Known about the structure:
Structural class: mainly alpha
Radius of gyration: 40 Å
Largest sheet: 2 strands, antiparallel
Amino acid sequence: MFWSFVQPTTVIDDLLSQEDVQLETLLEEDDLLQECKAHNSKLIEYFSDPEIIKKLLNYITNPPEELEELKKLKYSYLSCEILSCDIWPIYDAIMENTNALVEFWKFVDRDEPLEIFQASYFCKVNLVLLQYKLPEMLQFIRDHPEILSKILKHISSSPIAEILLKLISVSDREEANGIIEWLQQEKVIPILVSRFDPNLDDETHTNIANTLIDINSVSYTSPLLTNDLLSGNIDGVNSFLSSQITNFGGNALVDELKSKPIIEQLVGYMLDEKAPNSTSSLIHGTTVIIDLIRRYCGDIEQAEYQQHQYDHFQQENMRDENQYQDVVPPTPPTKAQFEMLSLALNDLLNVLGNNLEKFEYLLLHPKSINGPIPTTLGEVVPFGTERLRVCELFAEVIHLQYLYSSSPLFDRIVFEQKEGEKKRTLVEELITITDKFTERKMLPICLNLFFEFPWNNFLHSVVYDMIAKIFNTCSYLVTATNLSNEIDDENQLSAEEQMFASLSEETKERMNLIKNSVIKLTSSILDEGQLPQKIVEAQRLNDIEEKKEKGLRLGYMGHLTHISDEICKLISKCSNQFSDKINDYINGKDWADYINNSLQETKNRDSQALGGQRPNNDTITNISFGYQAQDFDFDNQDDQYRLAIGSSGFGVEDDEEDINGFDMNEFETMISSSKDRDSAEKFFENSSEDEMDSSEEEEDWINGLGNNNKMDGNILGQSDWTADFNEFDNNVNGGSLGEDDKLNDWANFDEAFSPDKINAVNISTSSNDSKDENQPGFEKEDILTDLDNNNIVENLNNLSLDENKDSKK
């Protein structure tokens, strides 16, 4: 009883019981962090002292110079872990010790670059304080406004950027109300974009791009109503409804990033012709713009999902009003959200369209390409990352057009302006930039690059994505607007036509404008880009390359197969929209030969199962696997499987668990689970009946089991089970076996399992241990004795061991 109430003391407790114990002494103890995490009350009280807090903070950012380097690293690490150890008294002590916190933040007064370990520890402590002491930390930062400018000064340092992202991500908490507006007033976005200056280094551009993308990520909220609604999970529904639907489309920082002045500044850096690092600005700047477009596409999909959930709920509720009586109904997208979707990227598309000529020049005259470089294919002119990023940017704009035009919410996203209002909507901007794509021949240029660089699959994927989206947009819009006046029944219309029929006249007019613009762009691909002709020519060149010695299939042929399919689908729906020149070639001999021959052969080859089809009874006579067809029972599954795999495959012949048609695992399990020898006899009788019509080799193996003294080596350890079985018979049994020999062997085996023989074996079991060591091998009785001991597999292996022992003697 006494010992159950006694708690063992630790070294830490002993040190803390001393007067004036030094912090450094505790930091040298190995179990210090363990005691902290165990919430040692004495230790917590010690670390909550203001002087100790100050020392811990100093060890992180300003360790004493006289300390050894290893101790500096150790004390910095331990101090960081102690201060971020989820101990509330320590957090309270830090926030109460304002002077120590001010000294701690002087770390960001230093010049770049900051020491990475110290910056990481500094970041970790502040992130913990922002998580658990948010009101106090926000008040501290606002009381010292220079802190934010210091953060932005070192924004190229990843740990410092994490602090800024934390400030943005906590904006949804009630204690952080107004933090986004305050950051906007402090010009956070303009300062960050200014770091894309092409005179700065590549590393700065990379860090700033990552920071802006992260700001997008933490600023957007995409609440999705999952199965909580229909499963009756009221808490999940309430959580959905209480989420930041008001932040649909991002927050004020994202809106500022999409504004015209910021985008113009960013694109100006990207297209600077004289600055030394403008290529880096272009590569990383396009990454930010692409992310903005993708976030907008996510907003459209989110609105579609919300509307779908709302409509589905209404339909289900009409069927059974009591089913969702206690469920809060989902909320459809609001009119304000639809208005935001109609205006969100206007400025961005406008700026891109105004600079399209400069992007075209970059595609034709890249700044970063200085000539060919050595590759495994020889000297090759590289395509370059800058040109790839420009193509990706065009692909995202085209994807936006497809998603916008084919959205079931098109009539709501196309925000109808009030009379006298001149604000351009996304529809007008999409039409304008599409027309400029056609005017500047942007898609034909991209197609030329596609065929010029046959081994750049990144480029091929991007160009294929552009072509597929344009063709699909064209097919959808042509189908939707192709209403026949003769159709009176609305149910006879396609889904696209029904959607178009429900639109207002103004919305129909805008959709027709988009359709006409997309048809022109599609025609430029087929006519000026000569896509069908180039595909036919590429197939001809590929055939020549493949016929060469060690010839290779050209790298773009896989994408051309998919592009050809897209052309066929497009022509089947929209052939009447194109010029006679395009239709004449599509209906001509060259294209028809390619479609009916080369393309069809490729598609047939690609559609075949990997490894070929499994043979069936009708085709088995035409296939040779080293066996004769008459050797097999076509109704037997094992024989069918063996025929499908072949003598050189991983079939019955090669599987230790299924040697020559019967399952050793099944046999061993049966023997070990029953003492009845009749079961074993029945097993082999059944096996012989099932396999008698199969190949002779299986019976020879069983014969070997009954005449093991003739076997050379381990039965289960044959090195080559695919060897010629006639040779196997000759080696094992002294010659090929006739039918009478086989039947006699089976009779001997049945005799071995007769009741009299089993009784005789049981009587002799006790004398097995006293066997003469000189006796060669095991007799049949030994095998049966071991069957009784449930060790069939082990003793089969022992056959070879005894024979090896005899050979040595």
